[in-house]
Task: inverse folding
């Protein structure tokens, strides 16, 4: 927090603050901007988890896959024949998220 105060309040340059505190100038710029925008509250740790997942399987496809799996209990590949655009790893993710972990042949496979 001292670093952010020196750059935002006392007018230190980012390069001087970075050298003094042994961090990159980009870090100094980022912390100073957070401090200027939000004050002390902006200096709290932020999670690294993304806010959204642009490649997540669309809800319409999930609503198609899950009922097919529950009707056809013989093989986990049966839904794939109906929804051919879904990759196997996405199919497994959808089924596990829906509470169906009966996919032993995928154990240890990521493709």
Result:
């Amino acid at each position: 927090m001292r670093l952010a105060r020196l750059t935002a309040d006392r007018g230190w340059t980012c390069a001087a603050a970075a050298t003094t505190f042994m961090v990159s100038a980009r870090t100094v710029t980022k912390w100073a901007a957070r401090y200027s925008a939000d004050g002390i509250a902006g200096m709290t740790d932020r999670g690294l988890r993304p806010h959204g997942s642009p490649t997540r399987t669309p809800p319409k496809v999930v609503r198609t896959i899950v009922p097919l799996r529950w009707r056809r209990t013989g093989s986990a590949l049966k839904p794939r024949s109906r929804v051919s655009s879904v990759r196997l790893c996405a199919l497994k993710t959808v089924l596990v998220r829906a509470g169906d972990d009966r996919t032993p042949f995928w154990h240890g496979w990521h493709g």
About this structure: Residues 2-43 form one domain.
